[in-house]
């Protein structure tokens, strides 16, 4: 079982992963409400597939959301984003493009499917994930049920 200590060690060992944050995608639309940096891990589980044998499958993200050097929220299974003012959103991927290198999770556009609370995310309708670094698992695994935390960073822009 994956421990929180193991996740923290994996996240803090990201010295080889660098990122440039704050660059908005050319095709962005809608008023930006909030831009945050996510620092965390993509959690994968080794599962049997019909055609490829054992393969790492995304289980959930686990990340801290940072704004101006200060932790303001979390990103987790759902996918869900929660911030300290009590607002939260859930999203669904509309489109994704391959990461700028094979080790990076895709940059993506998400539609917000659920808004909760009255804070900064209350009027958000879209999310962009850009500037992704890390987060992709190896191509195969060998022990069904095994868990793997792959460190990643990204910029999330919440738009109205």
From TrEMBL:
InterPro entries to which the protein is assigned, alphabetical: DUF3455
A Pfam family reported for this protein in Swiss-Prot or TrEMBL: DUF3455
Domain of life: Bacteria
Record-linked PANTHER family: CONSERVED FUNGAL PROTEIN (AFU_ORTHOLOGUE AFUA_1G14230), MALATE DEHYDROGENASE (AFU_ORTHOLOGUE AFUA_2G13800)
Protein name per Swiss-Prot or TrEMBL: DUF3455 domain-containing protein
Gene source species: Gluconacetobacter dulcium
